[in-house]
From TrEMBL:
Annotated family: Belongs to the cytochrome P450 family.
Organism taxonomic ancestry: Bacteria, Bacillati, Chloroflexota, Ktedonobacteria, Ktedonobacterales
Keyword line: Heme, Iron, Metal-binding, Monooxygenase, Oxidoreductase
Name of the featured protein: Polyketide biosynthesis cytochrome P450 PksS
MF (Gene Ontology): heme binding; iron ion binding; monooxygenase activity; oxidoreductase activity, acting on paired donors, with incorporation or reduction of molecular oxygen
Organism: Dictyobacter kobayashii
Superkingdom of this protein's organism: Bacteria
Gene (name only): pksS_1
């Protein structure tokens, strides 16, 4: 059977990518596709669990393309405005030793004490969002619940003053649109305003420390080592955009999946104590981060019999690995009590998601509270009309209307 080229960044593909990945696992586990935006280029999809796992841990796949590409290849990359340069100093785009150094410094800001302090706040905010929706008779679960919950929480954690929340949300939503291949140049005015705001906020925290994450970042030290201003700004951007996107998609797509599997929804409603394995299964099944972030081959590398040339873009497809029948019994079946669930939803190795505990906490509280408080919850639209967001790393819904009773 011939494998048809598809646009893996299209919203139509995102609706159900899993049959395509199943075909790749069986016939072409390392497969080249054309990425249409922001520039047209080739990318290699790696789809089997073993190969995805190994790729995530293999130092021959660089995160920083400058450590992999030839000078000729680098010349062909698109121009980056100078103001974006500082944002490249984030952990997602760096290799060791830079990555190791930054992670060691930032890790100290994600202490168990800080995470546990958030539990009551997450529960209170979840209840407030549902309280606001109930008199309306319904809500858009993405815009009114799944998005504001983690976005408000990360703002509080960072230390953004409550009165700045409206513009903070507005700026952040503009960045989220880049997942839909927005022209980065159009974002320059927003970037300038946001970076100016964050620089002012970090200066205030250096002068007047508070109990928040920006203070922790500007104070984070390892011996004489400390984060530079550019590194602090890049870390804040990473926490804002990458840090809450997984949770938005987990809550939105996870809720949709439960509605599409009423037996599992009922099981969770009757056994709320199963929420922890339920969230792990939803992470595996809906795959909020469909592909691991970009990696580049440092040399010609052969995977599953296919050689990936040096400098080329490599995408380890987590959404495919999490449906690999060699690791998951009945992988296309949702089972919220699944045991031995070794999914890769938060990645693996040196770049394992630092915010995984927070995402799990928010997902558990949001979905369990939604299910318990809204016993008559049901889908308010034809499943075929549900709109997914385009892009190539993430997998999430554009909108999801619900009646609340």
């Amino acid at each position: 059977m011939t494998i048809t080229q598809v646009d893996v960044t299209s919203a139509q593909f995102k609706a159900n990518p899993f049959p395509f990945y199943a075909q790749l696992r069986a016939e072409a586990p390392v497969f080249p596709v054309t990425m249409p935006k922001p520039i047209k280029r080739r990318a290699w999809l790696i789809t089997r669990y073993d190969d995805v796992r190994d790729t995530l841990k293999d130092p021959r796949f660089a995160k920083n393309r400058r450590n992999a590409m030839t000078p000729e290849q680098l010349k062909k990359m698109p121009w980056i405005p100078p103001m974006f340069k500082s944002l490249e100093q984030n952990m997602l785009d760096l290799d060791s030793p830079d990555h190791t150094r930054l992670r060691a410094l930032v890790h100290k800001a994600f202490t168990p004490r800080l995470i546990e302090q958030m539990r009551d706040q997450v529960q209170t905010l979840t209840n407030q969002l549902l309280d606001a929706a109930e008199p309306q008779g319904g809500m858009d679960l993405i815009a009114d619940f799944a998005l504001p919950l983690p976005l408000t929480m990360i703002g509080r954690i960072l230390g953004v003053p409550a009165e700045d929340n409206p513009k903070f949300h507005r700026w952040t939503k503009a960045f989220l649109a880049t997942g839909n291949n927005t022209n980065l140049l159009a974002l320059i005015p927003t970037i300038m305003r946001f970076m100016g705001y964050l620089k002012k906020l970090t200066r205030e925290r250096r002068a007047h420390p508070q109990d928040d994450l920006i203070t922790a970042l500007v104070q984070a030290k390892d011996g004489s080592d400390q984060l530079s201003e550019d590194e602090v700004l890049a870390m804040i951007f990473l926490l804002l955009v990458a840090g809450h996107e997984t949770t938005v998609n987990l809550i939105g797509s996870g809720s949709l999946t439960l509605l599409e599997h009423p037996d599992q929804l009922e099981k969770l409603r009757n056994q709320p104590e199963t929420i922890k394995p339920a969230i792990e299964e939803l992470l595996r099944f809906v795959c909020p981060v469909e592909m691991a972030t970009e990696r580049y081959a440092r040399e010609d590398i052969t995977v599953a019999g296919t050689t990936i040339p040096r400098g080329e873009l490599v995408l380890a497809v987590i959404g495919s690995a999490n449906r690999d029948p060699n690791y998951f019994e009945h992988p296309d079946v949702l089972d919220i009590t699944r045991e031995n669930n070794r999914h890769l939803a938060f990645g693996l190795g040196a770049h394992y998601c630092l915010g995984a505990p927070l995402s799990r906490l928010e997902g558990q509280i949001a979905i369990n509270t939604l299910v318990q408080r809204m016993p008559n919850l049901r889908l308010n639209t034809n499943p075929a009309q549900i709109r997914w967001r385009g892009g190539f790393i993430l997998r999430g819904l554009e909108t999801l209307p619900y009646p609340s009773s």
